[in-house]
Every structure is written in structure tokens, then in C-alpha cells.
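Lab manual, section 2.4: Encoding a predicted structure.

Procedure: take the sequence of the chain (798 residues), apply the prediction step described in section 2.3, and record the output as C-alpha cells. A sample record is shown.
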Amino acid sequence: MCLSFLLAFPLAAQKRVKVTGYVRDADGNPLELVNIMVKNTLNGTMTNEKGYYSLNVATGDSVTFLYSCLGYNKAERIVPVLQADMRLNVQMNYTAIDLGEISVTAIRKQTNTMETMQADQVRLLPDPAGGSIESLVVTFAGVSSNNELSSQYSVRGGSYDENIVYVNGIEVFRPLLIRSGQQEGLSFVNPDLTEEVKFSAGGFEARYGDKMSSVLDITYKKPKAFEGSVSGSLMGGSAYVGSSTGKFTQVTGFRYKSGSSLLGTMDTEAEYDPRFMDLQTYMTYAIAPKWEASFLGNFAINKYHFVPHSRETSSGTLDNVQNFMVYFPNSNERDKFQTLFGAMTLSYKPKEDMTLGLQASAFNSQEEERYDIMGEYWLSDGSDTNTGTDAGSDAMSVARYREHARNRLHSTIMNVGHYGSARLWNNTLKWGAQVQFERINDRISEWEKRDSAGYSLPHTGQEVNLYSNLYSQSELESTRFSAYLQDDFKFRIEQGLFSLTAGVRGSYWSFNKEFIFSPRVSLGFIPNFNQDLTFRLATGLYYQAPFYKELRQVVEDENGNNTIRLNTDLKSQRSIHVIAGGDYTFRIDGRNFKLTTELYYKKLDNLVPYTIDNVKVRYYGENCAEGYAMGLDMKFFGEFVPGTDSWISVSLMKSEQTIRGTTKAPLPNSPGYNLGLFFQDYFPGYKRLKMNLKGVLSGGLPVTVANRGYEAGYFRMPAYKRVDIGLSYELLNPNDAVRDRSFLRYFKSAWLGFDIFNLFDMKNVNSYYWISRPDGEQFPIPNYLTGRQFNVRLIVDF
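Recorded output:
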């Protein structure tokens, strides 16, 4: 009997129960990476991204739990008697310093390569693109852009097509035919509907798709009450409304943009009539306590109408100025890009730490490009100030040309998939599988005719030839299968806290019968000796699976006619990422700052080389290159002005590709250096008047001769440099007493703004027009982007 008692006693003493709960901040938002420890023991855990934790604890009397997180006051909870599983929720208050009316809080830790940005920082941003999340992303370290009319961007030397964009976990697409930022219009992401923005410049998780450069992960709002906003400017307007009624929430937004006034600052005098509009909605409905359905829909139509009249461009050096004069008789361009997108999601939470879901989406795009541009031009040196035919008589080159296109592309992309996540102890498992069907119908008929000094180009002396031509009647139907599995594991040792994310992704494409396998891993570490430091290391194998543009291979027949065929042997491009970096957070005069540094190396092979014409990527259509990209990215983030977030980023990079084993050239999107600045300020003691400043300085990109690759040589265009500034005055805020005595009580706030785009009127080049002479000599004439432009805007929230 005594022996039985002695054996049973240690077993009873080792009985353990599960303590679970959520940790939230004072506003009710979940807190990630909160340390939970049982006092006087080494038993502990931490919260996941939803603020949830689970901890196995030995039973006993008066068990004390300690909660700590950088930037928040420590919390302590005492359980007098712990004998069974229990739920223990905790709220943690900010560690704040009160500076009059300003409350400064700490910066959240980042243990992976995904950076978080506040979406509301875009609202007052001076943006010639009409207001977009991407306009702020281009100021991040490692990101570059050389066209203010476009929402496309390059990350660490990669092409625009290497960036993947998600909205509420669903991949979104953009039109394929767009060749100019003037035609592009609005980006898919509506900043009015956006709640959270996450961005990674490399080393991202396996749950994100097969792209080689970056991920932009957008989360749309789920309003808790009625809200809305209306804004208007000289460039267009937008409106959105959100509501919540019990089980149902919705947020719907409409945007309209016209860039006529902005395009009027370019060298070409013309009738510009670009009109871009879209309508988006995101709805959720709680079918049952554990079931929720959501719908994301978008309809967008971009119309670009262009009637050029004349153009005069000066280029060259101070010692050798060249004047380029063009007249356009009976020329016009009409483009139309219409897209329709819809996605349904059904999610089920069988228990607090598990989520299961089904997703289905469809994307349809109808793109038409029609133009007939006829020009009569001459190129002369700067000493010739005459006009008309006299100038042409002594010109370096006199010619006529005609560009013609009747292009049409219809695409349909449909997919259905399953995703899930589950928390097991300190692990968070995530998995997913998807099937995607693609149908693309491409019709291209374009040609260019040139004659110089009476000779048709290219001049052979025997026949009349077109300068260039391209023809296609391509159709593609294919199916892709993809799946991923990853584990987020957090653990603590005596030296500090580790956060490990490891996963694998696989996919198969029926078109080229290729299976790709992509393992990825990242490790974060917060040392105990100094919790202001965070270290990160990430590596992985990333593929760029061909979509459609990469497949198009130009084949020339014996008569010089170019047709497009789809290369069935094309394989995925591959990149091995190695990234090492970290953060250092500190305080100066009671304000928070963070310095982020990352070193990266990307080994590239199986590359499909490409050239860039404005924002259009022209691929070689074959895997014939290999290369690398390496560099240093730094970002200094903080409250330079109390209560506002600002940052400056610096990027240095070097890249090289070897084409067909002989030609060495930099990657087309490798500027060499990049400087980005986002700065906010307000008048001291008077926060109604704010200033937003965005600046970009990016090294020139390599350029090749038109219709030729890097084998014919290259040169670099001038650096892209631009500063946009906006001043905003708050006409109304929630604390104004006048709101209680008039119809203004229906409004929350109102802002009146004044913007100056391209503050210093810098002439930036983003492409070249090539002048040809009968002797084969060619002259690059720069196509300049927009000049200084003023804008007035009004934003009203209700």
C-alpha cells in the first residue's frame, strides 16, 4: 500500500494541463511574439500572428504567468489553483512617452523578410499615378522604378513580371499588352479599401507563389461600423463606403483617373484622352459561428486615346546639341484594356487554433491595341535654329515613318484551391493546393515602315522592305497544379528567441511537362543580451514559371517576316536566394527609430533574357542565359518628426548575365544604386498642416538598340531623379466643436491638399526613339517623361 502511494505521488505531481488564450493590445489588435513564461521555470511559449498561445503547465497552487513584449508594459496573471485546462486572455498596454499631445509607441519586431506598412500613409501622398500602394513601395530598400506614370516596379534587378501580388490571399493579374506607362492607368490594389500591406524583397515563404523577386501581400478591410470617404483632384477622384450589419460586412470603392493634364507636360503636343476607372468590392458573411464566406470582385476599364500633333526634343551634350522635330499628319492611337475579376472564399474554423478554407477565382482580360502613327521628322544639330523645309535641307537625317498595329489579346485564368493552418504546440503548420486553368488567345499584326533621304529602310538597293514587322495567331490552353507545406516554429533558449519558418513548394505545368520543387527557409533571432537587435537569415530556391510573354519566340523567314511561335521547350527560370540581415531599434529624444540592413546574393540560371521598352518587357523566348545579382539594402525608419513615420532607403547592387555563353551584360532592371525617401512633417504645435515628401534617385538602366538584343551592345540612360511634395490642411477633425452644431456632424474629417509633382522639373528619360540613316548609322532620341505639374485635391471622410 505504501509502495503504491509512493509510485502514484510523482505521477500526480507530473500531471499537466493546457493553458490557452489570446494576447491583444489596448485597441483589441492581436499581438505576435509575446513571450509567456511560467514564473520561476523555463517553461514558456509565444503568441502567433493572431495573438494566440498554448502552453502545457504542471498543475499546482498559485501558478504565475508572465507576459512580455517589446514596446508594451509587462503583464502578470496569477492562477490560485490550476487543476484543469483553462483559457487565459490578456490585454497589454503600450509603453508610451507622453509629449504633450503626442504619444510615441515602440516599433514591432520583424523576424522574417516580410515588412509591414501602414496603408493610410498613402492617403496624403503626392502621387502622379493617382494614389497607389506601389507609389510608396518604390521608396523601400531594394525597390526601384524609373516611370512615375506606372505602378510597376523592379526588385533587386528583377523584371516587373517577377513580382507577385496577393489581395486577401488571392493572386491578382494585370493586362499583358500594355507597353507604356501612359496606357497603364490604375493599379489593381485600391488603397481606400486596404487595411494592411506586407512586402518582401526576397527570401519569402513557401506559401507564396512561383516568382523570383518579391511579394506584395494586401489585406482588405472588414469594417466594424459604417464608414466612407470621397476624394477628388485635378487628376480624377475616388469614393468608397464600408459597413457592418451583424453577420455581413462590405467595403466597396470606385476610382476614376484622367492623366490629360499630366501628359500635357511631355515633349509631344497632342490631344491626350486617357480614362481609367474601376469598381471593387469585398464582402464577408458569417454563415455560422465557425463558417464565413467572402467575395472579392473587380471590374476595370482603361481607355487610352492619343492624337499627336508635333514633337520637339533636344538631346546630346553641351558641345553637341541635337534637335529632333516631328510632325504627325493624320495619326491616332486607341487602346482599350478591360478586366473582370471575381473570387469566392469559404473558411471554416473547427477550433480556435485551426482554419480550413476553399478558394475559387476567375480573371478575364480583353485587350485591344490600335494605332496608326505617321511622322515626318528631321534631326539637326543645335546650331540650326530654322524651321520648316530649310532646316530639313541641312539636317543630319530627314525621314518619314509609319507605325501600324492591330493587336488583340483575350485571356481567361480560373483556379480553385484549398488552404489551411493549424497550431500544434509552438508550431504553426500551413498548407495549400491549387489547380489553375489558363486560356490565352493572341492576335498580333504590327509593322513599321521608314524611309530616310528617299531610301526605304533597311536599304539594300534591290527591294523595298519594312523596317520591322511582327505577326502572331497564338493560342494557349494549359493547366497548372501547385501545392505547399510550411511550418512556423518558435522556440526559446538561454541565448534568446528563435523564429524558424521552413517550407516546400511544388508545381507542375501541363504545357511544358515541367515539375519544379522549391524548398525555402528563414530564421530570425532576438538575443537576450540586447532585445533591440534582430537577426535574420533566409535562403531558398525560387522559380519563375513561364506564363505567356516568356513563351513568345520570334522566328524570321527568308523574306524577313517575323512571326511568333510558342516555345514548348521553355523551362522555368531559377534563382537561389541567400539573404542575411537584421534590425537595430533605438530611441532618440523619446522617439523610436529602426535601422535595417540586408545583404543578398541571387544566383540566376535558366534565364530568359529580355529588353525593356518603356514598361513593356520583350523576352528572347528561350533559356539562354545565366547570371547573378548581389547587393546591400539599408533603410533608416523612424519618427524624425514626433508622431509621424518617415524613412530613407539606400540600395547598392551589381548584376551580370551571360547570354549564349558569350555576351556579358547587366540585368535590364539593375540601376546600380537607388535612393528612396518618404518624409512627413507638420507645423510644431499645429498638426492640421502636414507635409508629405517623396523622393527617388535611381541609376540609369542599360539600353539596347531597338529590335536588337544585348549582343549588339548597350549603354546606360541617365539617372532617374524626382521629388514630389504635397501640403495638406485638415479642414475638419473629429474633435472640432463645430461638428456638433451643424450638418458637419455627419463628417469625420476633411483635408484640402496642394501637390507639386516633379518639384524641380527634372527631365527624366525612360526610353529612346531610334533614328536610322541609309548608311546604317542610328541616333537615339530620348523620350522624356512628365515635367512639373500642380494638383489640388480634397478628401472628405464620413
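Check your result against the sample. Confidence is low (pLDDT under 50) at residues 1-13, 96-105, 384-393.
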